[in-house]
Amino acid sequence: MVRAAVLPAVGSPLEIAEIDLPEPGPGQVRVRLAAAGVCHSDLSLTNGTMRVPVPAVLGHEGAGTVVSVGEGVTHVAPGDGVVLNWAPSCGSCHACALGEVWLCANALTGAGNVYARRTSDGCDLHPGLNVAAFAEETVVAANCVLPVPDGVPLTDAALLGCAVLTGYGAIHHCAQVKTGETVAVFGVGGVGLATLQAARIAGASKIIAVDVSPEKEALARGAGATDYVVASENTAREIRGLTGKQGVDVAVECVGRAVTIRAAWESTRRGGRTTVVGIGGKDQQVTFNALEIFHWGRTLSGCVYGNSDPAKDLPVLAEHIRAGRLDLSALVTEHIALDGIPAAFDNMVAGKGGRALVVF
To answer: Using CB atoms within 10 A of its CB, is residue 19 exposed (0-12), middle (13-18) or buried (19+)?
Structure first.
């Protein structure tokens, strides 16, 4: 039996329960988790902002060790360290054919499967965002695991599965920040901290972090921020004041709120780029008038999973880690057990800390 954090229904609190996992079938892998990050997307699943079949075991950012493999699995073997990939590409849909694997139409089909049962009553359980990382062990499709790159500690590697791929990709793939450009990052959580580090790696000349919490300034500066702005109705004006009244070249929004997206847009210069990473609800409506779109000539774009291809990007990230340019430990402000996840959600809502990491 395996302990896991189960979401019984949308809007219900998580329950720590024992579950029964089957042995891996053809094309499947069983993984013993070393660590799992608590991401805002997990919170969004609990409150219905994002929807998956329930009851479910949540958690999509994790790494661990292969316990066993099913028939036909050859790219990993028992004993291998692996990173969980919650959004595997199918390779055959229209987006994949275009090379846009982060938009794969079939990436989340596995979330509808029954992958385990609750021990107490035999209730069917779904694997959250495909991988069910909030558990001591999980069984996933083979394309949901990637080998941990050499030189990356297994516990730290969990962060590569979402926060780092997303933040790094937002800067390098979506916004395509160039050396010397100026960047503002809205939201200093796990993804925001990864984005700040990525902006530093890209050679940004000024990196402005924005958050509602004054207490996060040290975290932000440690990740590469050169300036810190406490969010207010004057945020865009403050950012323009820090950039010669021009505005930044690039703003990355990691919150998913209409007011923050709008502030990020307004903080960029004429011709600037705003990349939206945060996942907001349908009630978060952002409005623009036609004249300002023409006048400012700005670009607004969504960013899914950092527009990343994990198989190609993980080796690049590993090289940055080995060279000391990327510090995964700087993203983590709390190490917790499974039963600490609800409190980590509360801290997110309150705007406290960076990434909480479940360590098994």
So the answer is: buried
